[in-house]
Queue: 3 jobs
Job 1
Amino acid sequence: MKKKWMRWLTALLVLLSFLGFSGINHVQAADDSLQKVKDKGVLVMGTSPDYPPYEFLVNDGGKNTTVGIDISIAKQIAKDMGVKLQIKSMDFDLLLVGLQTGKVDMVISAMTPTSERKQSVDFSELYYTAEQSIIVNKADAKLYKDKDSFVGKKIGVQTGSLQADLAKEQMSSSPQLGLAKYTDLVLALKSHKVEGIVAEEPVALAYVQHDPDLALINGKFTLDPSENGQAIGFAKGATSLVAAANKSIDKIKKKGLIKQYMTEAADKMTTNTTDTSMIHYWKYFAKGIGYTLLITAISVVIGVILGTLLALMRLGKNKLLHALAVAYIEFVRGTPLMIQVMFVYFGLGIFLDIPALLAGIIAVALNSGAYVAEIIRSGIESIPVGQTEAARSLGLSQKQTMQSVVFPQALKNIWPALGNEFISLIKESSIVSIIGVTDLIYQLKVVQTATYKGVQPIIVAMVIYFVLTFGLSKILGYFEKRMKHDEATH
Amino acid sequence: MTKPLIEIDHLVKKFGDNTVLNDISETINQGDVIVVIGASGGGKSTFLRSLNLLNKPTSGKIAFEGTDITGLSEKELDQVREKMGMVFQQFNLFPNMTVLENIKLAPMKVKNATDAEATAQALALLKQVGLEDKAEAYPASLSGGQMQRVAIARALAMSPDVMLFDEPTSALDPEMVGEVLKVMQDLAKSGMTMIVVTHEMGFAHEVADQVWFMDQGVIAEKGTPEQIFSAPKEERTKDFLSKVLAQ
């Protein structure tokens, strides 16, 4: 769990409880977590599917399917409980928040039960223990022997991971570069931004096997047996769920199923990488474009309606409405969209089970409304007061004056600024990928993970974003010209 | 007996500490053409804009056709304003609409006239102001004089009982002043009640029934054009007229 976010979210939760909301604390005297899962018939797992062979996505007949060792384990647990398994994807950093806010029942994402994490969630027993390795460029493989060879060299780690802690403690003379995704770390390695990446052996192996330019060395880290390995995370106090999971883990260990899961995962990785051309993955990108456009389009509509309302409230005579509008606009503009997305999904998610896509749309639309409100306000204020006076002196009501005289002219004046806002929305909506909405950025990461290619998907996504924004810009320009037409009839 | 159209009773208007209209009580009768003259800052425009309550009086009453309008709600005021046409110095045509649309807007929105009715009326009014060929033009393509004539036609489209003119020729190039004054003169001849704030002394002399000289927030002197221009009684009236006529 990335500490920065933890602090933010803790603050948020504290704030919510101050405001008098209850229900944040899921700990109950008699634990009924298992019964609850059985009652709803679905076990919801959270994972960050960018970590082969533990969890990654494959193209299964044109559909994104999450597979891997962890998924196989989760399926076994669900089967033993007699319920169906549902997988929710989100950034690794957000998984524990998902647990605490009840978005997911358990987290299986190759997570190591560090003492820090144990303070906020409960863990099952370890289901797998792996060695820690270091990925290096093959050309440099001879330069490095183990973790101690990296003195003064920059080392890459996944932010918030066990490896980051290990490197910090045992490679203290190597500066760290922390990134959220292994695909990005590999890119950093290849461009010599870092000289090595600390990774768990199966993960390191997966990358090295699919990239002839990479090599693997044993890190020879000193490992605490209680903390080294992967376990399943549960909400604090969910003892009956933990017990049920432990039973399944025991069974899996006894039957030696992990080995089998690993082989299956390796097979899937091979099929994934038989054709790594971007064309082969066009469906991924197409789906991403679809979601990006969907989120943007709905947000634009809601944003304009909300923005108009807020602008009128702000310009109106009612002091309370004015204050509300100002407070809303200032607050929304004064906080990052990323936090707003997390607030809607996790914060409001405590009371309402909002699906990630809907949460993303709500957050982006509410955010856009604040910006559109200011644009519309400036547009209305740009219309000379004489226009209003002329309309009112003719007997038009305030509403008619706004509708027929002021607003149409204001719209023309603010069109370029509004267009700018819409174009920003296409790009800024990408932030919803952190809660697992399969927009273009999310799909980009999926393709990166699936193909072990870092740069090409970035270029493809970049071109797609440009085509989208440039296309929109052209369409907006066409309407701008049409509105100007009334002045050109000299 | 002439019928009072607008009765002004102890009208006071203050902007902050600045008293712009200082206790004005006057009556305007139906069919009157009143020209208000005076130096800038004397309160002429504020006085005119108080009559249809574009400026809300600080105290005092204004009765229009026998009804006190100072206490009316915005909705009731809309109905009063229909009957009080106003023409502005800056024309204030709606730039996003054609000439025809400018004129048709209020009849269709406020009086629920059909498009055909409003169009027929608008074309007739455009003919009256000599601009029937500009119906489809946008304001930006018109000269100042043409725009002001459209603005007059637009105000007339609501069939008002009184027309308020707020320095209608002040923003015009000199060669265009005549065409606008001509339209106003015709309107006066047709019997329209008019209150005109202007610096056009020739127009005042020729068309006005009464000339009001405003200074420091009060009607300092009033009378027929002959009385005001030939034999002003007040010192400040003489002072003003000598400055204006010397130009």
Job 2
Amino acid sequence: MAYYQATKDPTTDIRERTYVPELLHGLAVTIRHFMRNLFFPRDTNTDVLNRTGTSQITTVSYPEEQVTYPPGYRGLHRLVPREDGKPRCVACYLCATICPAQCIHIEAGEYETTDASADSRVIEKYPTSFVIDELRCIVCGLCVEACPKDAIRMDTGRHTPSEYTRSGFVWDIPRLLEGPPVNHPSDPWLKRPGSERPAHAHLEKHARIGEGLVPLKLPRPAHPVRTEVTSGPVPVTKFLRD
Amino acid sequence: MNRTLKILSVAILLVPGVLFGISWAQYRVGGWLAESCPVFHTQLQLCDTGGTSLAWVSALLFHMLLFVMVLATLLTVAERKWSAFTQDRIGPERARIGPAWMRKHSFGGLPHVAADALKMIFKENTRPKAADRDRILFWLGPVLAFAPVFALAAVIPFGPTVPVNGYAISAQVANPNFGLLYVLAIASLAVYGTSLAGWASNSKFALLGGVRAASQMISYEVALGLSLVGMMVAFSTVQLPVLIGSAAAGTGQAQYLWQGSVLGLDFGVPAWGIFLQPLGFLLFFTAAFAETKRAPFDVPEGESEIIGYFLEYSGMKFGTFMISEFIEVVVLSALITAIFLGGWHLGFAGDVALAQGLGKSHPVLYGAFCGAVFAMKVVFLCWFQLIVRWTFPRFRYDQIMTLGWKVLLPLGLFNLFASAALVLLDPSLHWLAVAGLLEIAVLAGLTLTRKAPKSGSGHEAAGHGTPDVHALPAAAASAHH
Amino acid sequence: MSPKDNKPSSPPPPAAPPAKPAPKNPGFVTLNIDGKEVTAKPGTNLITAAKTVGADIPYYCWHHRLSIAANCRMCLVESSTSPKLVPACQTALQEGMSIRTDTERVAEVRRSVMEFLLLNHPVDCAICDQAGECKLEDYYQRLDHKPSRLEGGKILRNKRKVLGPLVVLDQERCVQCTRCVRFMDEVAKEPQLGMFARGSEEYIDVFPGQQLTSNYSGNVVDLCPVGALLNRDFRFRARSWFLSTVASVCTGCSRGCNTYVDFMGQDVYRYRPRENDAINQSWMCDQGRLSYKPLNLARVQAPSLGRADDRREVTAAEALLRATAQLKAMAGTAELAVLVSPSCSNEDLLAGLTFAKDALGVRHLYVGGRPDGAADALLMRADKNPNRKGLAWVSAGLGLSLEPFAALLKAVQAGTVKALYVLGAEVPVDEAEAARTLAQVEFIAVQATNVTPLTETADVVLPTATHVEDEGSFVQEDGVVQRVRRAFPPRGSTRGHWNWAVDIMREFGFPLTYESARDVFRELSPKVPELASFGWDSEAPPLKTQRGLQPLATGADGRPPGYREFGAPRVRGI
């Protein structure tokens, strides 16, 4: 009660000292809100900033209504595939290095020299394991900025789906790899003899990675893609070989 | 607009219709009871005590059990829904019942009443180990909290006494000639329930709540009684039906102070308590809030600090505490209606015409109409109490005591003596009414002429007196307003 | 180039060879580099001399232990002795000469050379193991920092030529500095590498039909300033910026080569040679380079009791109680023998042998240790135990005599040994056979770092920390005492040998207060005259240690200690 302060404060006048007019003004405020919200329909599924209705209710009745995301919303990351279906990732660890949440875990492998795959002649390093702990991820997008190979993007516009176990939030390559295959003129397999493009077509200068790309808004999958959740510890980086 | 129409139709048609129906049924059943049990038959006599025939049973059934109890129950969910509206929220809407087409609609959250009730009833009824010693008192707590407030409703006239089948049927369970004194006496009994609950729970917080409740309720008893004395003096009675009066006879609050007539329709300024005793009304309303232990006087409960005297209660025992609080809201609304708002009378126009027209030709319909008017006033006051509860923050404990003893009590005494002097000077109540209307005019003038708060200094206007560091720059502030 | 291009401060080239001035400082050469006077011994390289006044001359092909090739042209500087720019690595110091390394002309030439070197260099940094410790990266950022002007494709070569068991070559990344060729010719004296073809087609390769099988092949990886030569053992296992570094000593043989231990979390990823003129110069052998593996693999991590099928892991206290009870019963009798390995550090030996002498009451020690192996003329020694000299010193200082391992086997077969206390489970003979013989002993307590047949037959196994998990010192074969630093906390429940010895002595009732290897050395080394004068602290200042969790030492990369101290992102709570 501001009664005491009000009666002692020389700047107050009788209205504040008797307190009752101020009470009535307060009541007027709440009654005004009550009436507006009671009698007028609520804006549903409207962005808060675009609301025009008389009702001032801001609650969103999820899940029937959902807040629309701002245009800059990126969503969950994904690994970009090459044309042969393998991830573009070369396990350079730059994303794992930049990641402020330390949620990316990579294990690098080397294609065998005897590998029949044509890629193996030009691509030596690949991720044997690429794991993102979505619980740790803060969706900052620094990994996308850091990637020199356009191998990780955040353009799905999706949330991390819910899971029953913590280990379910640890996404591996099969779960992360999605979207159409992507090629860049600077890709090494396009510069080698035998590839579809001329071996010496020097295009790096004119094709900057990620330029002119249309954001990929993937549809919400009816049944979430889910890899088998195994119990036990999630692997930590161990590059040790015998 | 669809929503607006829907809500207006409910407010204008459905609710009054239902209330009219309840009142009509009460008179009909009362008449039937009086007729079928002639043992208790007495002479047809208006404004008689209601208890002389079995008709009081119908009043008990329809007004106390049906109207008061159901309204109190609905208020539990109304409080949540209405508070949501004042706070720009949606409020309860998730409980759905019935077939698929019904489940599409939230019905304003009404199914939550059923959900809440089922939860209360089927919840495990625990008793703390420490309360074993006083288990009878522990059990008695909710009973003593509930019984007095419910019993208060017995003397409230929910409608006029009208002749049905040749018997005088009143809408009142009892009409003792000590009416208001009964109210004051029984209301003060409620403190036993809270005190016992707090004591028997054997818990520090519950005891603290009980002690707070006891001291608060006892403090405000005084102001509560004093604020009513003015009305008793003005009408020289303590009987509620007499206070309300009769439009046909021009007595009580139904009389016009200044009246005119156009085409046979009477109009004028009624002698309502709120016009005769605006200060008394304000004091009574404040004191009544303190009696209900609701915000801003909810220190006994104080959910953010001590939880309150019912801390150790669960299940329907706690539910009893809760429902008695809401019953108190309804009963106090009814009391205010009867004492200050002219009871079942429309007030400003048409009362006499109605009483002499419909009242003579179809007395039951007239009675039911009056009952509906009374109930609508009660519903409005319930809503108003809820709005007040969600507008004002909780007082500090010493502020409550200061307000009770240093503000309300002196003002009540002043009001009593001034009113009594005015009544002595002019028994026709005109001077009293002039004084009351002047009080209202001054209050309205003060409220409407409030100086605009200095731009961006809401804090200062509230009396904090420190320059507001969050104030917007002058240009931005003027653009803002 | 006209003199106008020079900075006004730079001296004009002289018209005629000046008369040789008298030396300013007799016995030394005095010259001027970037306006600062430098006094150097005759024969000092200009790059080294320039470093003393803070002039950092970039270079690829020069190495202070290799012959001068001057073929990378990065170290070109302005000299008063020549109108043209001269390669700093090849320019002999002259009295009174004036050198400028900071003129625009030099900067422009450096930039041009960088552009030339990068002309055909693939932008492989993402997958290149050298990234993070690559001179090409560093100099590009520092000196060039401009896009390539090459039109048309880069020259394509073999990107993965496996040269030998330890080295793989990416010919595209090579800048033809020939450091590797010169190293194999001049230091390893096994000329297995050569330059082939001419001009822009030039490339490094092994001679036809050969492989890079030298025992010093790992050094060419260290020498390679770019990512052309890579270590097959380390390749793709960790990015260099994840690794932290601590100075240590190779324990592969008694040579005691100085090393850097590169580690992440509690795993060691590689050894690199550390400069030491007296012992290993800049090199180390491949065998020693790979000797880090037992630090990670097949470690004994928890104390255990019981032989074979009765083996169960127990707490340290329980294992100590059992060992104490058994050993106390036989202390002071001839039935109790102590086997000690010359692989233990001085501190381990000081504490362990003190325990053997004072608590167990033995007078003779049986010496175990790894068996002898191959040796060569450069660095590798036949004695594969890093601290045999230290064992000799400590045992002599404590008045204990040493007996060969064969004597222990004989005594066991004769049945005179009933209990055996083992400090370091290495044995100089076939491990399985020795374990079978030693199994006849009634009670064996072993302090061991790795799982061996002997730990399988032991009654009590006390897991022991390795030399990278604790502070310590080793005595090299020539009697040089060298300190090793702790890289990370001991794995699992392991403790240092000295720590177990001190713990058992406490169980025996000796009121010891040693808390660290430093305490042990300070308290016990005075008994050993050779060690007494060793500056344990001055050689490597003590880490600021406190109780509880201890942060790791800062790595060579300047990352704060504890950065990714336990590897990659670890998912907690699963």
Job 3
Amino acid sequence: MGSDAKQLRNRIKSVDSTMHLTRAMGLVASSKIRRATEAMTKSRRYAEAFTQAMDILASSGECKKSPYLEQRDTGRTRLIVIAGDRGLAGGYNANVFRFLRDYPDAELIPIGKKACDKYHGEFYSAEHFTPDEASGMAKKLCDDFASGEYDRLGIVYTGYVSVMTQETRVKWVLPLERKPGVKSTGMIFEPDEMTVLNYAVSEYVTGILVAAVRESFASEVAARRCAMDAADKNAQVMIDELSLAYNRARQGAITQELIEIVAGSGS
Amino acid sequence: MKTYKLVVASPDGNLYDGQAINLSLRGADGDLAIMAGHTPFITSVKPGKCTIETEDGEIREGAIEGGLLVVSGSEVILLSSGFSWKE
């Protein structure tokens, strides 16, 4: 009985220290949520403004022949994969990797330590991703697209729906699509539509990419907070159960000892 | 002086968002300035100096690495991932 109680005490101690850890991680995540969602909103606004401008450009007649609007269907796909820098965020990273099973032939460009480790790419941090890094990446991707090295470019990221809900999605970036209903009449382009479009594409991809990384990071932090909250609750339940068992074992040991003493004095 | 709404947008937030009298920078075909009432216009921006005259006449200077300038009826948006103010 005595050793039983000791074992239980050790387990309670270890669960308790795990709980401290999950609680600390949860607190760090919740303090990061606000900053991450702010950064997300800002970059999203930029991406939206750029998308509007690109829609106008792509809708103009002269741009039809631009290499960036060319629909090719040989199916060579490049995907930018955005995962987290760290684990312990519930299903966040796993969901991204599971999503990629639908695209077994795609060439992958990872962002975030977890994705870079898995797909052996050059390391880019998801938390500290800079527009400069995005711009370098975007330029190369646009040049490769124009020279026909691949046929479509997508970004696999995790959309931030709310603190409780995140959703893994793919956003197709290239080739550009002509949106019906957008008109460029009356707009003056300098020097001309095609040049402006071809020039702006890499900036556009940069904007979209930064927005996707910021959104994914906000999702990561939110997912981590939820996971840590749940872990915290589970640990508490475990501690309660173990404490009960421990007290019972302690009580049992005392009773046993008393019985032994009484039995000894009676003989 | 007549003013118009000017937004200098970058992926990490708006670097300028307010009324302005004049914006001058280098476009694809050369230096240009935008004042209130400009016709709808889109151009790519070349790297160089960018000067904004704010509502109260203050001149603010910055450097731009490239981007896109969109002048629509209601506002002027300068989209750039490489814009920084002069210290």
